[in-house]
Specification:
The chain is of the alpha+beta class and about 190 residues long. It has two domains: about 5-95, Arc Repressor Mutant, subunit A; about 110-185, Alpha-Beta Plaits (2-Layer Sandwich), CATH 3.30.70.240. It has helices at about 10-20, 35-45, 50-60, 80-95, 120-130, 150-160, 175-185; strands at about 25, 65-70, 75-80, 110-115, 135-140, 140-145, 165-170. Strands 5-6-4-7 form a four-stranded antiparallel sheet, with helices on one face. A three-stranded antiparallel sheet has the order 1-3-2. A hairpin with a 2-residue loop joins strand 5 and strand 6. The chain is elongated. The relative contact order is 0.13.
Length: about 190
């Protein structure tokens, strides 16, 4: 899960760009990528030097995350590998966040899971990710968050391949609500 941490931020950006566009043809003399990738990565790559980009590409190739091949017209073709796709998926998981709306909608998001021992690594990873996203544990395998996060939970349970074992629900009523509110520094109800 942590293979991508060794990948520099420029290499990660390039890898994600190749994943988005599928395949990239790079003119050897041109310090920029093809137009589709430029659109996908404009902000991050626009001002970078060609040598840095080239170095990052070869690092991705060395780690078998992309395949590079020269074309007869002098362009370099970059394609993402299966291993590269896995790394991109884990980068996306690491970048998941839950946005805090300007006003709380008074609803609670609850995640309940019963993951079998055969998936203990996935259970541990999910628990850690829930903590990182700001969830609080209410009981063993019962985690709560005050802000909308349906999509994030769907992505997580799919990524960790534990979809049948994880339940997401929303509720407006909680018996000990002030205990929950305190955990998130939300105003107490009277």
């Amino acid at each position: 899960m942590h293979t991508h941490t060794k990948t520099g931020s420029l290499a990660r950006t390039i890898l994600k760009g190749i994943a988005i566009t599928g395949m990239v043809l790079i003119a050897a003399s041109n310090p920029y990528f093809g137009p589709r990738l430029i659109r996908a990565l404009d902000k991050e790559l626009g001002r970078r030097k060609w040598r840095q980009i080239q170095k990052s590409l070869y690092e991705l190739k060395r780690r078998k995350l992309v395949m590079l091949s020269w074309k007869p017209d002098g362009k370099l073709e970059a394609k993402i590998t299966g291993k590269g796709k896995k790394v991109v998926r884990s980068i996306n998981i690491d970048e998941l966040t839950i946005e805090k709306p300007s006003q709380w909608d008074q609803r609670w998001r609850v995640v309940i899971f019963d993951v079998p021992n055969t998936h203990s690594k996935s259970r541990l990873a999910l628990t850690q990710k829930l903590k990182n996203l700001g969830f609080k544990m209410i009981q063993k395998s019962v985690w709560v968050h005050p802000y909308p996060c349906t999509e994030e939970i769907m992505i997580l349970r799919k990524f960790y391949r534990i979809e049948p074992h994880v339940t997401y629900l929303e509720t407006a009523y909680v018996e000990d609500e002030n205990v929950w509110r305190e955990k998130f520094n939300l105003p107490l109800s009277s």
